[in-house]
């Protein structure tokens, strides 16, 4: 069983200004065969986590176990783990065949004929069998990417570690490779940890995603759980495109009132018992609403509807991202995603509706999701 466990893993670096906590007490249990995506903004500790699993970086505190056994003290070559890098790291002077067979020749006593078969089968699986005699410089970025994957696959490791492997590809190829990589991982059923800063990649590829910020794990969940029940404001804002809108609100009696710090509230609505339950004892909360959950309606029909002015419309083809302000002289915008048939233009007044059933509620002080 190749389940991979990060047990209270901390990594500190020392530099002139003191201690940098790159990864702070991370706990993740990754199941055998699972595709786990580590996602977060630049500098949040993704690569450091991956490098600790690979054995390229020591662990300051905690332990990493593979199949129940600690990896502590095991050099990278003795871990049955293959890493795929963003830069592909192919040997330029070797052909594709040599790049793919090199690791097996060096680290096993497998017969040449057997290695040849494995390399050719893997190349066929990746659709690069006709490229085996070429050098990396004679390949496109997408083809080099496949060779890098092939080199990891031939080793038949217990774990794949992938560090932003698609980020050097153009958008179309990246989307194609996302699906292909997923299919491949499903077929091979190899435990995979995949690092990206791209939330779309995380949402579409991961069985589960682990969201990191500032070295701290924010949530480990399925993509849908993270989307529908974000653990906190950070996750809520990070997952989803365009990002969730947030409004500062105050509970005033039986009403929920928009109350931005230092500004004038623009809307309010009755506090239902369901929302009251979520809010609990807090007086101040942050209300989160996803752009796709805001509706633009003809006329205000209730307390959840309020006047806004269209700032900018971003056409996306089948839908539009409509950036709205509370008034024409306001520069703070929020965004609604509406169907492409709905035509609105800059400067136009529209009525926005925030359906209560779609709101997310966060503690204003801690940012914790109140569910
Ligand atoms: P990116 O997406 O930009 O690659 P990341 O999430 O992979 O970022 P890491 O590379 O893991 O982030 O870095 C986490 C933190 O640790 C950062 O603050 C970084 O500056 C710091 N760090 C990483 N390696 C070292 C090092 N060798 N010495 C000192 N600090 C380091």
UniProtKB/TrEMBL annotation:
Catalytic activity as recorded in UniProt: L-arabinose(out) + ATP + H2O = L-arabinose(in) + ADP + phosphate + H(+); D-xylose(out) + ATP + H2O = D-xylose(in) + ADP + phosphate + H(+)
Gene3D superfamilies the UniProt entry points to: 2.40.50.100, Nucleic acid-binding proteins (2.40.50.140), P-loop containing nucleotide triphosphate hydrolases (3.40.50.300)
EC number: 7.5.2.13
GO CC, one annotated term: plasma membrane
Compartments where found: Cell membrane
Protein origin, superkingdom: Archaea
Xref: SUPFAM superfamilies: MOP-like (SSF50331), P-loop containing nucleoside triphosphate hydrolases (SSF52540)
Membrane topology: Peripheral membrane protein
One Pfam match: ABC_tran
Residue span, ABC transporter domain: 4-239
Enzyme class, broadest EC rank: translocase
GO MF annotation terms: ATP binding; transmembrane transporter activity
Residue ranges that the Swiss-Prot or TrEMBL entry lists as coiled coil: none
InterPro entries referenced in this protein's UniProt entry, alphabetically: AAA+_ATPase, ABC_transporter-like_ATP-bd, ABC_transporter-like_CS, ABC_transpr_MalK-like, ABC_transpr_MalK/UgpC-like, Mo/tungstate-bd_C_term_dom, NA-bd_OB-fold, OB_MalK-like
Keywords of the record: ATP-binding, Cell membrane, Membrane, Nucleotide-binding, Translocase, Transport
Alphabetized PROSITE patterns for the sequence: ABC_TRANSPORTER_1, ABC_TRANSPORTER_2
Family statement: Belongs to the ABC transporter superfamily. Carbohydrate uptake transporter-1 (CUT1) (TC 3.A.1.1) family.
Function: Part of the ABC transporter complex XacGHIJK involved in the uptake of xylose and arabinose. Responsible for energy coupling to the transport system.
Subunit relationships: The complex is composed of two ATP-binding proteins (XacJ and XacK), two transmembrane proteins (XacH and XacI) and a solute-binding protein (XacG).
Name of the protein in its database record: ABC-type D-xylose/L-arabinose transporter
Organism of derivation: Salinirubrum litoreum
